[in-house]
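EI: anyone free to look at a 494-residue chain?
SC: sure, send it
EI:
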Amino acid sequence: MNMKVSILSQRAAGRDQQIKAGGKIRPGIKVLTNAAKANAKAVDLYNQGVLKRLKFSEIEKQIVEACNIKNPMYPRNTPYYNVAASDFGMPELAAMIVEKYGEVRNGDSEKRLYRFPVVFHSGDVGDIYPNQFRRYGGEPGYESHYGEDGKRYCRYLPEVTKEMVAEQQARRIKRPPRRDKVIRGECEPRSCPEFLQGQCKFRGTLHFYIPGVPTTGLMVMETTSEYAAEAIWSDLDRIQQALGHIPRTNPNNPGKPIFWITKVQEIRTYFDENGQKKSGIQWVPKLQADIDMGSLLSSGADLALQHKPAPVAWLAAPKAMPEASILVPTAPVDMPPIDIPSTPAAVASSSVAPTQHQATAAAGDPVEAVLQKLDMLGLEHEETVPYFDLKFGEGWEDRTESLAAVLKQLDDFSKVGGACARLLIEMTLLAHQIDVPPQDFMRYATGRHGRGITGNETVLNQVVTELRELAKSGPQFAKSYIYDELKMIEQRVA
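SC: here you go
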């Protein structure tokens, strides 16, 4: 068979081809700090920008220029997706998506995008969900790339030197040859200086079409969560391995979508720029499939031959969505104060020792004070929000008394340092995940390891490691084990 080759096909095959997106759906949003909320102009710009569905980066730029407020917004994890008109080649598509698939939940007056159907353009998981580590805002622009041997390498585009330009001018070269990217070595994030410093980050981009949204360009959704990306990749890969392809029609319900993108609350574990392991409850993107794999696999049919294009009727007129389970917002949990020692030894074990000046520098705005104390402790806003949501209830950043309590908690954490604080936060979230009240788990932990564990990083590491392993066994087993152990501990004491 003769294959027709064109100049364009050769050029496309000879370079890294970037798919031009028809639109972008973002997993999170940004909200105003208290300092920005106190500025009427900033509030108006924010509300107008959200109403017009502008990107939050554009809104933030307007506020900085008009109000001269530094860092007026911060990221907020939400159960819904952000759909900005300026993220689409056809801005009206943003409103169309929310109108077709948005929902009003939990007394919210606004319709928001909690979940939406998707159809994938390819049967190759690598085409559907390309991902890499990439350095942004620095030179050289390092990026990960898989070689023919299957290994992941770090590569970059070499700099154009003065000597190269002079040589090209001397030889009267009008079209300089394309520079090839240079392999730096194997890509190993856990030992990479740029990754550990936060310069190089994971980027995964899911590509899809949304039924009923008229566009030739693919929609994309980016995520920096390796956890979420790995879960979606694994689900697609498992379906592809089982069925022989990524289906585009629903074999159980012809004419209805098969794949949905939603969000679920999960404990997410990741590494910070210092290589320290962290965990926290987050709303993370999730792929759901309305497909009965058991029936399909047990039917004995040659599933690979059933691959058909999506029906025109489905792409033109979306069907009703299946019922979505609504998660109840986290309510404040009755949590006892953590027994933080104030001995010199405990403070000496701290990885951060804030000064009195640092602790009081941002006393004007409570939210800014919280952010500054987090920086002093080396804690990320992303990892602490789930803990404060759990302890003080969602929306604590908008309540004066809750902000005061958060600042008090951070002052207590400063007595043991950022490393111990991070472990205490993870311990609390993991205990909540297996449905064990913090006071009961603390009784269990002190019974096994002795008192004063909150200021001992080595012992806390051991406690959290044990709890992680227990959590892997499932909430029911972990909870039963802890209470059985607690009963034995109390019997020994008695």
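EI: The two ends are 85 Å apart (CA to CA).
SC: 👍
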